[in-house]
Amino acid sequence: MGLRTLTLELVNCGSTPLTVNGYPAVRLFDEEDTPIEVVVGEGSAGITTAPEFDDPPQEVTLRPGEKASSGLLWRNLVTDATVNATTATRLEAAPAQGQPWQEVPLVVPNEVTGTSTVTIDLGNTGKLGVQAWRKA
After folding, report:
1. E strands within 76-123?
2. Domain that holds residue 121
3. pLDDT digits (tens, 9 = 90+) for 29-53
4. Are the C-beta atoms of residues 90 and 35 closer than 8 Å to each other?
């Protein structure tokens, strides 16, 4: 079915509390580092039915060293053979719109090699769902 998920983690590396509320801002880039046009939606709407992914945003305050997490949701789905499939090889995120961007390594644990690089293979849907921040 091509359904994919990825977890984002935000760590308060500062010395004072950090409050997040809402959804992270995300942007994707292809292998040539060109921005990919993608519709970023709040929650799972238009991608799948995932009630736990659609919990409304709540204010989360992180003490130094604490973490919040969010999820990304998409389908690797090709619905039109005349439109090229899109794959992101780089991801940037910010705690919210208007805040500084940071690159998010697209690396996941792998039992054999230790880690593996992943991509965000959107097919040609051009849709990405984002989950509200929650305390990790």
Report:
1. 86-88, 90-94, 102-104, 107-110, 114-117, 120-123
2. 3-135
3. 999 999 999 999 999 988 998 888 9
4. no
Per-residue pLDDT, 1: 65
47-104 tens-digit pLDDT? 998 888 999 999 999 999 999 999 999 999 988 889 889 999 999 999 999 999 999 9
Spatial strand order in the sheet of 90-94: 25-29, 90-94, 102-104
Chain centroid, CA 22 distance in Å: 13
Residues 6 or more apart in contact with residue 68 via CB below 8 angstroms: 9, 10, 20, 60, 62, 133, 134, 135, 136
- pLDDT score of 52: 83
Q: How far apart are CA 128 and CA 120, in angstroms?
A: 10
Q: How far apart are CA 58 and CA 60, in angstroms?
A: 6
**97: which residues sit within 8 A by CB, 6+ positions away?**
25
Rounded to 10 degrees, what is the CA torsion of 34, 36, 37, 43? -150
CA atoms within 13 A on the CB side of 64: 4
